[in-house]
Amino acid sequence: MFRRKRSADTGMTTNVEMPDSAYETDFVDTPPAGKPMSRRERRAAEKAAKREAMEAAKCQSARRKAAAKHKATAKKKGLKKKPQSKEQNKRAISAQATIPYREMGKDGICRVHDRLYSKTIRYLDLNYQLAQPDDKADIFDGWSEFLNYFDYTIHAQLTFSNRHSIAAELENLIKVRPRNDRFSDLMEEYADMLREQLQKGNNGLIRTKYITYSIEADNFREAKPKLERIEADILTNFKVLGVVAYPLTGAERLKQMYEFFNPDAKAPFEFSYDLVLKSGMSTKDYIAPTSFNFKNRR
Fold first, then answer.
1. pLDDT 10s digits, 123-180
2. Are residues 63 and 92 in the same domain?
């Protein structure tokens, strides 16, 4: 470092080398102790102080921006990964757990989930095509009124099932018991005709129709009288239409589901609530197939 010095004898100014310890920093020329700073030195010191203040402000601003960016990123990730409830995390690990109901009572009342209860009614065919025009109009009006009965508090579903029948089951349906009277020959001939038509006509298919209705209730005690009242109204409407209908018991509803889940099964459905109590199994164990395949679902 060099510093200007005026000679007292000649009055000339020369550059004199000074040691580094005589200065506070490498950028500011600090005069020796006890001497005032010149204007030039004060300006240099002010500029250095401003530069340091600007650098500190830039560092603080960068830290604030980084903290805000980190907070925003964490908040965004938190919105994408919401904590899931236990029911959402619970996965069906068996065919039984995939069947969506909780309990099936002997009287046919099914608890689908905590507040939803349902019943099913089976009804037979009504030959609409062979009816007279006036009768068709009456049937259509009656069916419209029947459908309008279900308001927003009642969930209704119509089910049409075509399934392959078991030979023994079909024979029991058309079996004519002999009475040992003068009409025995005629009844036997009629039974043979039914068996022949059975082999030709429906290719071993049985067509059944169901209507399942459900309501919401806080518990079973509250749901049962409501379901029974709706059942009575539905049976009355079917009777007005001239349709035979009857409610399904718990065992009959389980048989219905067994036929849906096991369409190729040839063994008859065997179930009783006494077996459930003795074996400790659930009703789903009697109706569930070996597995469900959802790969090709639409």
1. 987 766 667 888 888 888 888 988 899 999 999 999 988 776 655 555 666 666 766 7
2. no
Q: Element (H or E) spanning 124, and its range? A: none
Q: Which two tokens stand for residue 82?
A: 């919401």
Residues 169-201: pLDDT tens digits? Answer: 556 666 667 667 777 778 778 777 777 766 665
Strand intervals (E) in 149-204: 155-164
* Domains held by the chain: number: 2
- Which of 102, 138, 136 is CA-nearest to residue 117? 102
Both tokens of 133, joined, read: 């025009």
Q: Which domain holds residue 268?
A: 88-165+204-287
In a domain, 137, yes or no: yes
Q: Are 111 and 214 within one domain?
A: yes
C-alpha distances (whole Å) from 8 to each of 13, 93, 232 are 10, 104, 129
Burial class (CB in 10 A: 0-12, 13-18, 19+), 117: buried
